[in-house]
Amino acid sequence: MSATAQIGVTGLAVMGRNLARNFARNGYTVALHNRTAARTHSLVAEFGDEGTFVPAETAKEFVAALERPRRLVIMVKAGEPTDQVIEEFAPLLEPGDMIIDGGNAHFADTRRRERELREQGIHFVGTGISGGEEGALHGPSIMPGGSKESYGSLGPMLEKISAKAADGAPCVAHIGPDGAGHFVKMVHNGIEYADMQLIAEAYQLLRDVAGYGPAQIADIFRTWNTGRLDSYLIDITADVLSHVDAATGKPFVDVVEDQAEQKGTGRWTVQIALDLGVPVSGIAEAVFARSLSGHAELRKASRGLPGPTARALSGDEAAAFAVQVEQALYASKIVSYTQGFHEIAAGSEEYGWDIDLGSVATIWRGGCIIRAAFLDRIRAAYDARPELPSLLSDEGFAREIGAAQDDWRAVLVAAVRQGVPTPGFAAALAYYDALRAERLPAALTQGQRDFFGAHTYRRTDRDGSFHTLWGGDRTEVDA
Questions:
Q1: 383-388, long-range: CB < 8 A, 24+ apart
Q2: CA separation (Å) from 344 to 265, 272, 396?
Q3: Secondary structure (DSSP) of 158-214
């Protein structure tokens, strides 16, 4: 088989299949391979008119079809299946070739694989791809890691197939070495969890407190989507809420089990944040909310617990409350992105990646699930101050969240009075208040730790570590 393909894709499930078609549609000759050859031939039979495909039934044929340096994209399940594919193909490659992992791999696995393959002279490019099956086909947001050398060869191809922002900029950039790309994709998904939870809480408040039906709430979300909350998730939420189930005639949202599943990236985001010592409370509450929703028996056993009596709002009260919910949603959304970017910054420092946060905001403006109008403002904030300690330190965001705080607090008061759970809104406000507090109760916590464990403490009036001898005359000693 002659080497004619500029890129190859192995693993032709929905994402791999659509990514291969995207490359072909953009003028590249694409080698195809799948463990089950029938899937390869099916793609060619169904979509062969979209571009030039080179089907291969064996690993050797697949590699032989690729031009040097070979660019081999693997689109298989994370974990052991990815390692198995690498073990199959790596011996067939030569120094300078590259393996691109486009799955949702854990960044620690990506770091290990990159290190091992680097010793063989092979570039391993852990690449986050966001946008789902539609994005893979029509243009996703792409977050490649790996060496700068590999991006020099691969980058122009990724830029061509990626989503384009409103200003025409491709939604792809070299994130950083080894696992940086998959790390940023992981945090992207964590922010996505938080964003979805906040939107769900806004819906629940509009329904259970304001008394609106799903179709009415859909109209409210469509209105919001014309303003500062303009985003993909707000847009699709309106569509979901307005959809009527054909079988029952009921609102679609009322016939779906209220149990949300997850694939793990949100959980990874929280676990790694704990390792890094970064508070991502909004993301954590979103993960826990999904977990709680799945405990059907526990919830069933608890439904008889006492709670407040709901009070119906008048039409004018409901409309005013909807305005307050928009404020609370926007403010909480800013906090979620603040926490996510903080984790990316901490990961970048911990692993020496030197990630450009403004660039991350830039490539999330199109293609990805969390694309939103205000990412332009996030990019501008980091471009103006690359060392910005927090999005809340940006003058514009600080002013907006300050203006929203009264309504934000009023919404939470209403939620508590009506017994509507809002863990995302509450966690976001608690984070905001903790940041702005002159002093936190951590001083008492540290005193407790010193009392029972001699863990020492620092003082506000002089340097050093100290310990109080609590059992006697409570003398303070240098630690």
A1: 383/358, 386/356, 386/357, 386/358, 388/357
A2: 14, 10, 21
A3: HHHHS-B-TTS-BSB----STTHHHHHHHHHHHHHHHHHHHHHHHHHHHHHTS---H
Assess whether 192 carries a catalytic annotation. yes
Distances (CA, A) of 110 to 90, 123, 277, 368: 15, 12, 22, 21
Write down the pTM of the prediction.
Answer: 0.95
Handedness of CA 240, 241, 246, 250 (dihedral sign): positive
- Assess contact for 269 and 190: CB atoms under 8 A: yes
* pLDDT score, position 290: 95
Tell me whether residue 263 is one of the annotated catalytic residues: no
**Residue 311's pLDDT band (cuts 50, 70, 90):** confident
pLDDT digits (tens, 9 = 90+) for 222-246: 999 999 999 999 999 999 999 999 9
Which of 114, 185, 285, 333 is catalytic? The answer is 185
pLDDT digits (tens, 9 = 90+) for 171-185: 999 999 999 999 999
* Catalytic position from the list 192, 285, 343, 400: 192
Mean pLDDT of 67-76: 96
CA 411 → CA 201, 325, 398, 402, distances in Å?
Answer: 11, 6, 20, 15
